[in-house]
Amino acid sequence: MLIAQDLVGFFQFSLLYLTVSIPLVLAYRVTKVINFTVANYITYGAYTAVLLDYYMRSSFGHNSLLLTVLLSFMLTGSIAVLSNLAVFKPLTEMRVKGDVLMIASMGLWIVLKYVLYIVSDIASSACRTNLVSYSQIHYDDISLLTARTGLVGVQQSLVVFPLLALTSMAILYLVLNATRVGRAVLAVADNSLLASLSGIAVGRVVNLTWFLTAGLISLAGVMWTTYSGAITPEVGDSLILQVFTIAFIGGLASLTRTAAGALLISGVENFGTDLLSTYLGLPTSIKPMLTFIVLLATLIASPPLGVAGGVPYRFTRGVRR
């Protein structure tokens, strides 16, 4: 039974981490910002679902995952573009270093987080409902889907997680590989100066990247609403350690290695925690510690970030000397 639970947890969290970490790495390759507001993208996706669920149920008696996903994508993507125009673009034009951009993203992370707290507090007072800690959401269109496919009784999270994760990956793959816009994004990611010289509007590509990646990351927040028993403005913060560990494992460069990192961290959290708890009697609360161990090992073994450099790089560099 324990193994079955671990497998389910591994499956769900692998999909959740993939939905966040791959767009995050793509965004870094284009914008060169180590972006802590990824936590806000997750949370704003979840709270789009919360507010829409309350409104639709009180007004119409039902809700919709499809409408939630569309609104979450549009809202969060727009917030990311506005954040770029207001904060990151001016700093980039000033030619500040990457660490300054990272610190700016940390400040913006806190600002956006407490803006959401303010909005949810005001909405809670107006609606006379606790929106700061909202219960798990069940989507009526997913209930209809499970009824028609003979999956009645299956947890909605087991349907929504793969549905949204695969949709996100499919959108990203098609955009990058089957459209001119996607090829422009990849060109800027590889060499923004060369892309500019070849006639690509780099500024537009950067804005599009912010919009696309933030919108896709927000789907993780929607996924979370079908899993967690309490949805709060801390949703994204609770996932940011794992997400950045995965991104660093991928060297903030390789989407394939990032995907492998998502599987690794999910496996460590689910199987590693239970093994240590079962055989050594350690509490399951050590889960964040295991993630930190993986993060530190990655940073020490693979300079500067992730396996894009790695132990083989260090070894060969020493030999060449």
From TrEMBL:
Belongs to the binding-protein-dependent transport system permease family. LivHM subfamily. Keywords: Amino-acid transport, Cell membrane, Membrane, Transmembrane, Transmembrane helix, Transport. GO terms for biological process: amino acid transport. Its main location: membrane. This is Inner-membrane translocator. GO terms for cellular component: plasma membrane. It is found in: Cell membrane. It is a multi-pass membrane protein. The chain crosses the membrane at residues 6-26, 33-52, 64-88, 100-119, 158-176, 183-202, 208-227, 239-268, 288-311. The keyword Transmembrane helix applies. It comes from Thermogladius calderae (strain DSM 22663 / VKM B-2946 / 1633). PANTHER family: BRANCHED-CHAIN AMINO ACID TRANSPORT PERMEASE PROTEIN LIVH-RELATED (PTHR11795:SF449), BRANCHED-CHAIN AMINO ACID TRANSPORT SYSTEM PERMEASE PROTEIN LIVH (PTHR11795). Pfam families: BPD_transp_2 (PF02653). GO terms for molecular function: transmembrane transporter activity. The keyword Cell membrane applies.
